[in-house]
Amino acid sequence: MNNPWLEIPSDDYENHMSEIGQSQILNQLLEKHLNQYKPKKFALLGCSTGNGLEHIDSRITKTTYVIDINPKYLEITYHKFHKTLNLKPYNIDIQNTALDFRDIELFFIGLVLEYVDPLKSLKNIITTLGKNAILSLVIQKNEKTTFVTSTKYKSLEKLSKISNQVNEDNISSFLLQNGLELINRDVIVLNKNKSFIYLNYQLL
After folding, report:
1. Fewest C-beta in 10 Å: which of 25, 41, 79, 90?
2. Which CATH superfamily is domain 4-163+177-203 in?
3. What's the Cα-to-Cα distance from 103 to each of 32, 119, 131, 144, 175, rounded to whole Å?
4. Where are the domains of the chain?
């Protein structure tokens, strides 16, 4: 069975995320983290079509690794930004493929762990982190509602087959066992049934 992410047109994804206000929040969070941590080497998992990459200052961030399971998304991202950023695209399924780069200073993961095996994926990600690196996660918490918000972009409904609520405690426990300490946790309420939790961990 093909991963549903391979069947969702980029326009559907972009319009869906914009309509429900989630792309704007992820964009703001990414900008905040880039400005705060000023990484020389940065990685973005689930880059989609490049939302937020316009905030990268190439004078500071010398290399940006963009990772996505959908090769068409990566192609769009590369076309948008390769002239201004030193992009390294990776078309992989993070839960089943190890990464071969190292010394990442900031690794940002926004709304990806809900669609993969979180611990298998994080195991592959941890190997890329340099000393004192920041691992930033954005996860979605639902209460009495469907995981994927309903819009007119029906292709997104395919994601219900693979989406799961992420267990925050399990993630924190796993990361602590692997040398990462939680340094910040915050909640953004989207509506009465949905919120984003963003978590920053630091490799000790």
Report:
1. 79
2. Vaccinia Virus protein VP39 (3.40.50.150)
3. 21, 20, 7, 40, 17
4. 4-163+177-203
